[in-house]
Design brief:
Blueprint lengths: L5 H10 L2 H6 L5 E3 L2 E4 L11 E4 L4 E4 L5 E2 L1 H8 L4 H12 L10 H23 L11 E2 L3 E2 L19 H14 L4 H7 L2 E3 L5 H5 L4 H6 L3 E3 L5 E3 L4 E7 L5 E8 L7 E3 L15 H7 L5 E5 L2 H9 L5 E3 L7 H10 L2 E7 L2 H14 L8 E7 L5 H8 L1 H9 L2 E2 H10 L7 H15 L6 H14 L3 H8 L17 H5 L8 H11 L21 H13 L5 H7 L6 H8 L10 H28 L6 H11 L10
Parallel strand pairs: 14-15, 14-16, 16-17
Antiparallel strand pairs: 1-2, 2-3, 3-4, 4-5, 6-7, 8-11, 9-10, 11-12, 12-13, 17-18
Length: 624
């Protein structure tokens, strides 16, 4: 699809006003030079959510949520980055360009969405009963209503001969599964009639497009036939609610029982989740998403008031699935059968989840009784009992060590050593942080090994080691530091730049800070060079330039800083920090050359440089 040019994002963030973006969704009140509201990301009675029109940045002092206008749309609307850019561009009256993509290609996608919507309406109308009003009694008297859609052109008005009897059979199936008309309509459930060419006849002018979308299949001798026949049809929606594909459940004896649309330009099974769009529409705030295996499981749970379930599309759970889940909710519960196949699927889901287990993200596993699935169990037990099972689901840590322990005998020393070797590559996938440290600690308890020693054996971080004497810290964590620690000059300079990017114009040549070995000097140089080349960039544009990089989260943290300075004092403070950095760099270079001279002769150039560094600075002008 091509990339969105960085220059466009810069321009977008310069044009868009974060106050307008947020105020359209969360009413803001003027509070001094900023705006405030109760945070939309956590419950609170006293406003702690602030929006800065100067920095084009929001921050909540209660829960720590923060970011740019793009970041706000991603969190509030549960969009991915590209979707958030498109939404912000729409409100700013801009068209999003793509490198390597021409306009006709984008137009083809828009035509595909429109065509898929028409096909979804076609399948819905096939579900009508034979009575004049198109009704059928389902689930104890409720009505399955499939109203005629707005006019979509000739294809959408096609009527299938003999559809009445087939529709009754499809409705009887849904009735037997306890589905009401309201849920069927909300999820757009439809029916693909038996026969080989109903869809092909209804959309005679769209055969090439439908072949590309996988809904028609080309015959070897020419012509086409319908991919879906005699199946209950479940349209699959993307996060914007557009139909992107279909899943079909057979009514007859055909195989497979479930059939999905093939991959296409708009449909990627490894990224999409069935029911996510409806869950987000139904629930304003989602604390937990339940991942189940089937379309009917999602519908049955929704029928019983459990609206936070989604299903993968006939594939194993992927990292892309989970990235989407964790953008919507901090916790995921995987719901699988308790048999061997179910546990193997759960283990694959665990492996996909490990790299995403940052602080604040949780994963748990619910294994159902033998012979049950969410559909049958919720109808048997009801909403409260099923939700109690979900609440008691097994934490990832328990399932992790339970699964590994079954592969060895942890009662013996050799077995415990084997357990450590089995855990090593999996623990290495976990991101650095508290959870990984706790998982290593747990392994140490099971294997009877000291956590610090075990961390060394595993080759991953365990307990923090004190730095050796004279060792210079270069990690970004050392650069950003803790909130209550004295602010080092590099951190102070970067923080001031994020508050007022225009300060970069007074900094002189940034390269004098390069190669100093001082933690954070590299990011300072990059910021100065970027701002001197593009002085129009604001704080939000800077933060978006580093989104997704190791530096990004630290810059977001520094952007929250509120300097206790008068604005007229900022240039002096900034230049003072730069001077201090330069002195530290010269001192580090001097110490390096002295140390080198003790173990090897210096070159003539190095000797001259050391002599200059050892000479006292020139005296200032005489006064008086």
């Amino acid at each position: 699809m091509g990339l969105i040019p960085k220059e466009f994002i810069d321009e977008l963030l310069n044009r868009a006003d974060i106050v307008e973006v947020i105020d359209a969704r969360v009413p803001l009140k003027k509070s001094g030079r900023e705006y405030s509201a109760c945070c939309p990301f956590h419950e609170e009675k006293t406003p702690s959510f602030t929006v800065s029109p100067v920095k084009q940045f929001y921050h909540c002092f209660g829960c720590g949520a923060h970011g740019t206008a793009i970041g706000f749309l991603m969190e509030y609307e549960h969009l991915d980055f590209v979707e958030a850019v498109h939404e912000l561009a729409r409100t700013a009256g801009l068209t999003v360009p793509r490198t390597g993509v021409d306009a006709p290609a984008v137009r083809v996608d828009q035509d595909s969405y429109a065509l898929l919507q028409q096909v979804a309406e076609f399948y819905r109308r096939q579900l009508r009963e034979h009575d004049a009003q198109g009704r059928a009694n389902v689930a104890g008297g409720s009505l399955l209503r499939v109203p005629a859609p707005a006019t979509l052109g000739h294809p959408a008005r096609h009527r299938t001969p003999g559809a009445t009897a087939e529709a009754k059979r499809a409705v009887d199936y849904l009735k037997g599964r306890g589905l009401t008309g309201e849920i069927a309509a909300e999820y757009g459930v439809g029916y693909a009639p038996s026969g080989w060419s109903h869809l092909a006849h209804a959309f005679a002018a769209a055969h090439p497009a439908l072949v590309k979308l996988g809904l028609l299949v080309e015959k070897e001798g020419g012509g086409v036939y319908d991919r879906f026949r005699e199946r209950i049809m479940f349209p699959i929606h993307d996060q914007r609610g557009r139909v992107i594909g279909f899943g079909g459940r057979v009514l007859g004896k055909d195989e497979p029982k479930y059939l999905n649309s093939p991959e296409s330009a708009v449909f990627h099974k490894g990224r999409e989740l069935y029911g996510l769009y409806q869950a987000r529409k139904s629930l304003r705030k989602i604390e937990r998403l339940l991942v189940v295996e089937g379309y009917m499981d999602v519908l049955a749970l929704a029928q019983h008031g459990i609206r936070n379930s989604v299903a993968t599309l006939g594939t194993a759970t992927t990292r892309e699935h989970l990235e989407r889940v964790f953008r919507v909710a901090p916790e995921v519960v995987f719901c699988f059968d308790g048999d061997r196949a179910g546990r193997e699927a759960a283990w694959r889901a665990l492996e996909a989840a490990l790299p995403l287990m940052h602080e604040g993200c949780q994963a748990r596993f619910l294994f159902l009784p033998e012979g049950e699935d969410p559909d049958t169990l919720v109808r048997k037990e009801g909403q409260a009992a099923f939700e109690a099972r979900v609440a008691a689901a097994m934490p990832l840590s328990d399932f992790f060590y339970e699964g590994l322990a079954k592969q060895t005998d942890i009662k013996t020393m050799d077995g415990r050593a084997r357990l450590v070797e089995l855990a090593r590559p999996l623990l290495g996938r976990l991101p650095e942080g508290v959870f990984r440290h706790m998982m290593v600690t747990r392994l140490g308890e099971i294997a009877h090994v000291n956590t610090r020693i075990l961390s060394g054996l595993l080759g991953i971080a365990g307990a923090a080691k004190p730095p050796r004497s004279g060792e210079r810290a270069r990690r970004l964590d050392d650069f950003t530091g803790e909130a209550d620690a004295p602010m080092p000059p590099v951190r102070r300079a970067v923080a001031l730049l994020l508050q007022r990017p225009v300060l970069a114009q007074a900094a002189g040549n940034p390269q004098r800070f390069a190669g100093t070995g001082i933690a954070g000097a590299d990011i300072l140089v990059s910021l100065l060079e970027l701002l001197q080349a593009q002085p129009h960039l604001n704080t939000a544009a800077l933060l978006e330039r580093w989104r997704g990089t190791p530096h990004g989260r630290h810059l977001l943290k520094l952007a929250q800083w509120q300097p206790l300075l008068k604005e007229e004092e900022w240039p002096t403070e900034f230049l003072g920090a730069l001077a201090q950095i330069e002195r530290q760099g010269l001192e580090a270079r001097r110490e390096y050359l002295i140390g080198k001279s003790r173990i090897a002769p210096l070159s003539a150039e190095e000797k001259r440089e050391l002599g200059d560094l050892l000479s006292p600075p020139p005296a200032g002008p005489l006064s008086g």
